[in-house]
Design a protein that fits this description.
The protein is α+β, with helices and mostly antiparallel strands. The chain has one domain. Helix 4 crosses helix 5. Zinc ion (ZN) binds next to helix 4 and helix 5.
């Protein structure tokens, strides 16, 4: 299973609006590292999403990988085991939950959560808490590809 971010762009904008971030630009790109390189940023190729700052501004925009592969989930979730807290991230093995959590994680950065060095887990925790509040109707609208 895969998620095509472009086919779910409406949901991404819906989430941004929920947190009053509708002024943010959403870039959906085939490869984060190539996008980052052409914009003068250094990001590891394994990233699924980033929130780079606009030049001369603290405002962060959203850059999301176009195709999120369900097979990538275990490697991303395995990082969570190093969190200094005992949060249970099992729910994220489900692709729609994983996708919304990914967007919420980046929204956390836009809101200034987890931006200090070594505090990225705070964005994950915030995103997990907010994921619980997302309406089932939104979750059902997520478009999945085979
Ligand atoms: Zn992060």
């Amino acid at each position: 299973m895969k998620i095509n971010s472009k086919k779910n762009e409406k949901i991404i904008h819906l989430l941004l609006k929920k947190y009053k971030l509708e002024d943010r630009t959403v870039y959906i790109v085939p490869d984060i590292s190539i996008w980052a390189e052409t914009h003068g940023l250094k990001e590891p190729s394994s990233r699924l999403a980033i929130t780079p700052r606009r030049s001369n501004s603290n405002t962060r925009d959203l850059v999301i990988k176009e195709l999120i592969d369900g097979n990538d989930i275990p490697s991303v979730i395995s990082v969570f085991h190093f969190h200094p807290t005992q949060t249970d991230f099992k729910r994220l093995n489900n692709l729609p939950d994983f996708f919304i959590h990914l967007i919420l994680h980046e929204i956390a950065h836009c809101l200034g959560i987890g931006n200090n060095k070594g505090e990225d887990y705070k964005s994950d925790q915030w995103a997990l808490k907010e994921l619980d509040k997302i309406d089932d109707r939104v979750m059902k609208e997520i478009h999945l590809d085979n």
